Fold:
Amino acid sequence: MEFFIQLLVNGLSIGFLYGLAAMGFVMIFKSSSVLNFAHGELMALGAFIFLAMITWAGLPVYLAFPLALAGCFVLGFVVERLFLRPLIGEPLIYVIMLTVGLASIFKGIMLFIWGGNLYTFPDFLPAGLAIHWKSINIPPVYVVSIAIGLTFLILFGLFFKYSSQGIYMRSVADNQPAALSLGVHVRKVFALSWAIAALVAGMSGIVLGIINGINVHDLSSLGLKVFPVVILGGLDSIGGAVIGGIIIGLLETFTGGYLSTSLRDVVPYMALVFILMVKPYGLFGLVEIERV
Amino acid sequence: MRKLRFHPCGNFNERYEQELTIFETDFGRAFLAVGLIILFAVVPYASGPYLLYVINMVAITAIAAIGLNILTGFTGQLSLGHGAFIGVGAYAAAILSTKVGIPFILAVPFAGLITAMVGVLFGLPSGRLKGLYLTIATLAGQFIIEYLLVHWEGLTEGTMGIVLPGISIFGVALDSDRSFFYIAYTCLIVMILFAVNLMRTSYGRAFIAIRDNDRAAEGMGIPIFPYKLLSFGISSFYAGIAGALWAYYMISITTEPFNLGLSVEYIAMIIIGGLGSISGAIYGALFITGLNEGLRWLTDILMGVDMFSKAGFSMAPLRELAFGSAIVLFILLEPRGLAEVWRIIRSNFRLWPFSY
Structure:
């Protein structure tokens, strides 16, 4: 029983991180229906920018965090302007491959500057945030990450539901020509959505970095694990991303605990194939009805 | 004797057969013949061992790239699992030749068939999925196959790898680089012939129809699902042949090379070479293999320089950077790839001095 509860807590916390990582991914998909293979690298970039600000520039955390997020925001703008904008209206495969190429470029740059080593942030969270309850220990980083994640989740939920910019984004994702003809500034929407997505990616990268330390290879493979998560939750549902993340996280830890540790890393993808065969649009995804 | 055919100064085709001809002029045929003679008679003797190794790798890569182009370029199904299929081919050949004891000449086509079956299996999701979702399903396929190759130890020996016997055909040992050159290029030419002619048949046209508009294709009486599966099967067959040749050429294989990076490399090849073009796949294979070897050479030089070797310089970041930039630049500047560049150059010569 003790083991079960420990696995449950581990699974929930890992799953929440997956959900956090998946949120930025869903943002891009929701507003521009681009499948972003560079997501893991964007997360790593955010974390490294934060690291550089803390260690090299010596800024205090409360200043470095918003500055790093602002840096990611600008980076998203630049990426969209330079690489994605020329591809508006091009076939899907080019857009997907472009993000794959971008992933390689980012990875190369990060490997040049920081190498493949593991970096850790200095410990700056107060220990008083930790939660102790019977045999369960939740360290402060998890508490903070859950708080940050929930805040962003609610903010984005409101943003997409009520703000006009959020509704423009949804309209562009739904049908580009129709949105254009109704006077939505599609290019502006794209630029903004990439900027916001890079910001969210950077945020989740920083949180993940606080918990596990940052390493280019780990974060980029995490960027791929986002796929089972978002497919389970539904590609265009932010809340679904978090729930999908938690389910995948639980699945992983329980497989690792009870079946075999080597199966752990591949079980999300098996689940992915299963979901795709049974319920391709996920738990909360918008079902496109099309008969072929 | 019939008259030689030259390029007409316009499009005067009256029948569909004329559109479908492989050689527009007799010069093309002659150039191809000369090229083949040079390839088979001069190249293996004129090049040193290292160059010959690179040339052999180009042939293997080109076979797999043509396979991926049939699936992605012609049928429009983006697959991120091609690297794993090559691995399946390599392991099928290795297991067939060591555990079953099948000779080389049978092991290679059987490896192709086994991979084709695996490919059809992983193509099954295409019955319900298309576009993005299918791409993600093939990504999952890549990880699952990779896992099976490493952990199904009873069959694949896991991370230990398998050592293959040398190539011999009817008792004649053919294990030098030069004899492998003849085997690889014979395979490549057969595979090219098959692919080029496949695209001229109703099957090939059905693939292209599915790529261009699947709903319209279905409306015109093409059963989409069987054709998609067929395309997956053919593409994996190519991957399997390439993998089997690779396994025999490398002699000992491990699971390591057949990762997602390899799949991405192959997609990069067909984009750089040109989607939906057989010759494009070959240009792409040449380009990427050349790039790989060029980078290795450059790294060796940089490692010799004191400043770089002290800084712990390695090939990985340079390779990532070069690959990413190549993909991004081709997509942004010439999305139809090297095949299109070559076509523009040719038509410039043909239309000179009135080219634009």
Notes: Chain A touches chain B at residues 33, 35, 83, 86-87, 90, 92-94, 96-98, 100-109, 111-112, 115-116, 224, 227-228, 231, 235, 262-263, 265-266, 269-270, 272-273, 276-277, 280, 290, 292 (CB under 8 Å). Chain A has a mean pLDDT of 83.
